[in-house]
């Protein structure tokens, strides 16, 4: 599939912001997932050598306390008969933990959600629901960029609980340092070190993050246009990171929002709160940073997001 370069994409009328709406055809529900063709999935399967499987999901109880004002998950196990049991989840937020942001998550002002859909989610009908992704899964050749290890190697590391923007040039530098090439259709996985820090934090330290409401501070990708341009020109299928928002927070309104630039304007799915620690250890041991990536979102009709259920197969 021949795709235009970022610099060739059209602008929104009256804005200096580019978009990919219409590149994959009218009424598209998949965005950059269209880059993950059957041929590329078949090629990605050749990344499996030992058959070892590595979960990329945070422990189900995390984050605890929940972030962004969400209520704690309540799991109840109930007897349904003499020899049978059932269970249910209350206060279940599909975007609470390791998850995908769907195209109904964020819009760009009057221009609407990805593709120009201007109705609010309850009135959208079938458009842009997470169930479209669930029907085919999010899978392909995974590439891990271990930014945390690179920053530790080159400058002593950073505090993942402080705002720190990872630039496009740094992503290129990490890829070069690891001698890995990002190919069209790849699922780009970015380890910032946030999940590592969070898992070792005390409950009191986690509570500080939760009490920050919508303004916690943490490391993540820069929201600058140069980041969006790189991700588009790499023609990735999706981007997943180990922090709560992929981009750094709380962010600078003068720079803008990476969610808007990437998820809305370019149609690149964003995964959040992944756990890449064990995968990073195995990749570093073999000096091999690619694998077969498999994620199965829930087929929630009209869903805004979904648990990711991700696994790397090596």
UniProtKB/TrEMBL annotation:
GO biological process, one term: L-tryptophan catabolic process to kynurenine
Gene Ontology terms, MF aspect: arylformamidase activity
Domain of life of the organism encoding this protein: Bacteria
UniProt-listed Pfam families: Cyclase (PF04199)
Listed SUPFAM superfamilies: Putative cyclase
InterPro entries for the chain: KFase/CYL (IPR007325), KFase_sf (IPR037175)
PANTHER family for the chain: CYCLASE, PTHR34861
Protein name (record): Cyclase
């Amino acid at each position: 599939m021949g795709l235009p370069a970022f610099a060739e994409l059209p602008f929104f009328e009256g804005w200096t912001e580019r978009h990919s709406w219409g590149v994959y055809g009218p009424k598209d529900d998949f965005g950059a997932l269209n880059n993950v063709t059957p041929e590329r999935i078949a090629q990605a399967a050749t990344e499996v050598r030992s058959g070892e499987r590595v979960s990329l999901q945070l422990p189900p109880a995390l984050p605890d306390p929940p972030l962004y004002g969400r209520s704690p998950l309540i799991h109840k196990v109930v007897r349904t008969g003499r020899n049978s049991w059932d269970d249910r989840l209350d206060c279940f937020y599909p975007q609470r933990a390791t998850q995908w942001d769907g195209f109904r998550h964020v819009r760009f002002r009057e221009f609407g959600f990805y593709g120009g859909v201007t109705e609010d989610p309850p009135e959208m009908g079938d458009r842009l629901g997470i169930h479209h992704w669930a029907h085919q899964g999010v899978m392909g050749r995974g590439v891990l960029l271990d930014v945390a290890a690179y920053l530790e190697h080159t400058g002593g590391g950073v505090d993942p609980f402080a705002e720190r923007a990872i630039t496009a040039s740094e992503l290129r530098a990490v890829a070069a340092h690891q001698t890995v090439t990002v190919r069209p259709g790849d699922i780009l996985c970015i380890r910032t070190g946030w999940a590592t820090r969070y898992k070792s934090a005390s409950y009191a330290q986690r509570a500080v993050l939760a009490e920050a409401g919508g303004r916690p501070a943490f490391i993540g990708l820069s929201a600058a246009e140069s980041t969006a341009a790189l991700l588009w020109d790499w023609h990735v299928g999706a981007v997943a990171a180990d922090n709560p928002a992929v981009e750094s927070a709380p962010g600078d309104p003068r720079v803008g929002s990476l969610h808007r630039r990437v998820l809305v304007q370019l149609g690149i799915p964003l995964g959040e709160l992944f756990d890449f620690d064990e995968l990073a250890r195995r990749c570093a041991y073999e000096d091999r940073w690619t694998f077969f990536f498999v994620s199965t979102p829930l087929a929630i009709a009209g869903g805004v997001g979904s648990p990711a259920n991700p696994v790397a197969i090596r």
